[in-house]
Predict the 3D structure of the following.
Amino acid sequence: MAVPSLLAVFAHPDDESLSAGGVLARHAAAGARTAVVTATWAADTLRAAELAEALRILGAGKPRMLGYADARVPHSAPGCVRFCDAPLDEAVQRLVTHIREFRPDIMVTHDAYGGLPGHPDHVHTHRVTMLAAQAAGLEQLYPDAGAPWQTHAVYLATHPHSAVPDLRDVIGARKAVYSVPDGQVSATVDVGPWMAQKIAAVLAHRSEVERGALPGVIASLPPEARERQFATKWFIRQALRACCR
């Protein structure tokens, strides 16, 4: 059976590698079409260049940028509104254009909490992605954004409660984390065979490594710790029903 084409939608450059790098590499290795849409940062920034290198490593094509500013980094997209402040209809339409152009079988994005850290850009990316995935199949919505396309399902990158203790070395003991009951997890994916690509993609975000953000923490871990903490990915599957057109 053919591996489904996959479009990942994440908030910031590096989220794609951290949250779905192994899955993207796995699908690409099986011959599936893969791509990534990033909600924030401008195309002419250093972080966009780092994103391009990470996607090359993962086999996920060229960056697709919505072009909004990071909620906490105004210079990420000079002169542009923060993603969280952008008109919702506008953001959804921009993403619908990418969905209809790429025509993915499935999509991947942040869960409703925005992943473990609960970053507001992550939460908003989840919101926009769920709306856009449904809207892309409705021909009377955004007619200028391309022919309608109905994605089968959206997979939400998440963490079960049981996984949190093993991640404390990475996320810190004092930080609040957002995880879900184990029973809510729909899919558990072993990405161990693609760990080398995943880690290389994470480390391609060199500015984040240098400032000590999560890619920097991962860079400091011994290989066995990386394997133990990042070789399994968890997802909540959200099926999409075709609506009246």
Notes: The mean pLDDT is 94. Strands lie at 6-10, 34-40, 64-68, 106-110, 153-158, 187-190, 232-239.
